[in-house]
Amino acid sequence: MNARHDAEGHEAAGNEAMGNEATGNEARIAEVRATLDRVTDPELDESVVDLGFITAITVTAPDEVDVAFRLPTYWCAANFSYLMASDMREAVLGLSWVRRAVIHLDDHMYVEAINEGIAQGKDFTEVFPAGDGQDLSAIRRNFALKSFERRQEMLLRHLLAAGHPPETIAAISLAALEALKLDAEGTVLRTRYLERRHWPQDVMTVGEGVSPFAFVTRDGERLMPETLGIYLRHIRRIGLNAEFNGALCRGLLASRYPGTTPAATPDFIGAC
User: Positions of the region Disordered (predicted)?
Assistant: First the structure.
């Protein structure tokens, strides 16, 4: 009788431990997913999670994570692909409990070169020396500037539609913009814009220094109220291009992988 009770007790304890482990893995997976949600496609400036690129997150050990992702086409540009993989690895390694992050790109013409290069922490030019000579920092800065202008345009148009005159918008400081009362949509747009506006200088330089004005050009020049309309029309092309490419990418991804939808839930897996 005692032996049976001991066996049952050990089994119950084992089941409880497995349940706790599963719960812990679910929490870790959710944390990884939230971290990856902040990684964007450099050209589209949209989350790789929302775009449906992430296909699996696996906690392979208490301090190790494996992330698998795919792209809309077999021939997606190597620099975009490498930058996303690099950003994913850096983001996941930024979690306090992660010591090793393995990023797997699937179904791509350069899959072996990209996966091996990312695993070894190499720069893009080391893996693709025949490219245009741009390292990841230069590529990242180029797309950060485009993202800055796109997010700025969306916020500026929202403020104008909300009744804020060009004179007020052009004169508002960063501190005043951060304190400005906005509706839910405006709050999201402001947060996204300030993410780019406050990026470190080695990633995106806006002029020679940090201007006190909230809205400046990519060169750090203050926007003027009398030319705000012209400026908005100028940067609108960036938004239109991104919107077109975003729709195209979603269509290609859905065509390549039937059943795929934006923000589809990937195959999140616990420990193996």
Answer: 1-25
